[in-house]
Amino acid sequence: MLSGSGPKGALISLKGQVWLLAKVVTAYIGAVIGAGFASGQEIMQFFILHGASGLKGVALATALFAYLGGYVMFLCTSLKSTGYKEILTLLLGSRVGKVIDILNLCMLLAGLSVMLSGSAAVFGEQFGLPARAGVLVVATLTAMVILGGLDGVLTANVFMVPLKFLAVSLISLAALRLGGGPVNLEPVVPAAAGVAGHWAVAGLLYVSYNMVVPVAVLSSLGRMVPRKIGVAGGVLGGLLLGAAVCLVTLAGLRHFPEASTYQIPLLYLAGRLGYGFQQALGLLIWLAILTTAIAQAHGFASRLAGGALKPYRIFGVGACLLALPLSGFSFAALVRLLYPLFGCVGLALLLALLAAPFSKFFRRPEKMLHIIKRFNIINRKI
């Protein structure tokens, strides 16, 4: 076991319960709010370009984030998982689960490279610093957090994730309150409507695209979080994610179509509020890159370590080193090349999560108990 879990069945104080809840909520939010979210570009493509219908997509995404967060934590705490392999096998079967498992590992490593490249872009374009320094700073900080074990990752999230969550929310609220016209609810022409022509498809794709890393992160908490706290944290984290998406969408609609012409729409909104806001947003985007990099390195390491601390540290630091060569490529080029693959794998995982509770298998508690016991036996053998 990595760290942070007390004796089985031990009573947890109210303060301890709140702390565990905060760890689950921030782990979930931190895995989703990456550079694309913090820049506003993801929200623009998936929701803002749909006008009023985009708000329906936001509502759908919020419901899915809340449901899936709670359900994933239910599965993780039931299986006492330390990584996502158990979850994939349970949802997809051993054969398909192995394929998705390998793809997930590759995606986490590739995603870490994208974050390192994104840090280089922010250092060079926003702060006027050497681009390579951006790569090395994020790689070093990520490795240092991983060396602290699971508690190090969760504690880093508890302090950093609320900061970037509040920054996104406050900038969006300020943009809604100051300047701009009324909220524009007219959709753009369907041919230009972001990643999908229909708001429901856009909402579904947005969640599937953003669930791969959260599943990898949340699955590592199965042994350290009681079921009720885990489920509550998953649901609350999903609702807060939906609230942030809604605020950014409303702010973007108020400043539409001007905001849609920018690569970083939130940077345009922050610029309307003043130079200080613009610089703060640059720091926010970099912070989002850092927390996402930590989440991806953690997901990679926890999958391969099997709950042991020393291998976890080795695989986590190794992931940072392996991600360095690919990080030399352009951030935009890596996103165009890799993110469509992320979406395809995420869609398979999303469909499995949505279908699982309605299958005959999950209506038989004794069957699930048998699988849980089998996983425990396998883990002991390993």
TrEMBL record:
InterPro entries: YkvI-like. PANTHER family: CONSERVED MEMBRANE PROTEIN, MEMBRANE PROTEIN. This is Membrane protein YkvI. Keywords: Membrane, Transmembrane, Transmembrane helix. It comes from Pelotomaculum schinkii. The chain crosses the membrane at residues 20-38, 58-79, 99-123, 129-150, 157-176, 196-217, 229-253, 273-294, 314-332, 338-358. It comes from the Bacteria.
